[in-house]
Structure formats: structure tokens, C-alpha cells
Amino acid sequence: MSSYTKYTPSTEARTELHDRLSLTGAEISINNLPAGGCVPFVHAHKENEEIYYILSGKGSAVIEDEAVELSKGDWLMIPPASRRQLYASKEEGISYICIQVKSGSLSAYTAEDAIAY
Amino acid sequence: MSSYTKYTPSTEARTELHDRLSLTGAEISINNLPAGGCVPFVHAHKENEEIYYILSGKGSAVIEDEAVELSKGDWLMIPPASRRQLYASKEEGISYICIQVKSGSLSAYTAEDAIAY
């Protein structure tokens, strides 16, 4: 296996990194919704928790019928079963990262998982 | 379980999200290295792949003795066993996200894992 993989996305509406980076523990997408736009469906997940990070702009997530305001710098975790839909604000688009990971899959992390040299 | 968790980090040197967001499939840190700074050790991981996203600035990752230049917008995946050390450039600091996930843990994702409503 290569010692690393690297990729620099363009500004497409959606860029998916799983295959481009040879990810095995996550799928990551970079998403750009224009002002007034939204992900055109409500969804939940079978196994994966989703972690969102807002890169720029403004919008909201409607989660189980509750609207959560989002702006640059916010982080949001949504467990698998919560129904969700993402919206840009009417005045301004929103750009965000969405990280999918299998719920409960992390065993150890940081110092506990590290090998120091 | 709550239907979501949300957090907005400050600009500390390092912010860890696992406990703040109740993550179960990842640890995520937001890191700010000043110009000329570096993570003060070389490390690898036992089980976790690391995914880096550069938020701003410039620097490099030295991975198995190879220097990989990094700047805003770059994504990098490092498998568990690769020895790595992160540096800011001499002229400019670097801010980045580091996502730790268990290598091989993702079973299905996106359409295959989704429940549409």
C-alpha cells in the first residue's frame, strides 16, 4: 500500500473522496448548495453517523423536524436514525463537508492508538 | 439518544471533537500550527487511518521520509502504519482538520447505507 494519498477538489456541486483517497474507514463529500437550494430529499442512515463541518456560507439542517441554524465553523453530528435534510439560506449558499463513519466503529484514538517514534 | 450534537470551536492550538460531539465512529481534531512550528514527534497508528484537510495556510507532511507539500483545500489520507510528522511552513502557519477512523471499518455508504423518505 502507498504511504499516503492526496487530492485537491475543484468547486463542483459535490465531490466524493472515498475512491479518490482510497478511504477504508469513512466516506467524505464536499458539497456546495446555492442560495435557496437544498438536498432534494429527507434521509437517514442504516449504520453510519454523519459529521458535518460548515466551510462557508449559511443554511440549516432540519433534523427530526427541528431546524438547526448553520454557519461557517460549525460542526454537527447526526446519529444514523435521525431524519435529516440540508438547506442553504435564501440569501447565501452554503459549502460543507459531510463525513460518514460507521456508528460505534472507533475502538481507540489519539494516544491510545498511536505509535510514537 | 439526542437527534444531533453541535459545536463551534474557538481558535485554540488544538480542539478535539470526540467528546464534544459524542462521536462513536471517528475522532476529529482542529489544529493550528504557527509559522515555523511542527507537531513535536513522529508517529504512526495501530488501527486508525488519518485523513487531513487543510483549512488555511501552508506546510508539509513528512511521510516515511517523503515531504508532501500542503496548502488550503488539500486532502491527504495516511494509512495506519506510515510514519508521519506535520510542519507549518517557515513563512506561514497552517490550520488543518485531522480525522481518525478505524481502517477497514466502513461497510457501506451513501445510497447503499441511506434510508430515503
Automatic annotation (TrEMBL), chains A, B:
InterPro entries reported in the protein's UniProt record: Cupin_2, GPI/OXD, RmlC-like_jellyroll, RmlC_Cupin_sf
Start and end residues of each Cupin type-2 domain: 33-99
Annotated keywords: Metal-binding
Gene Ontology MF terms in the entry: metal ion binding
Organism domain of life: Bacteria
PANTHER family found in the cross-reference section: CUPIN TYPE-2 DOMAIN-CONTAINING PROTEIN, OXALATE-BINDING PROTEIN
Protein name: Cupin domain-containing protein
Source organism: Candidatus Faeciplasma avium
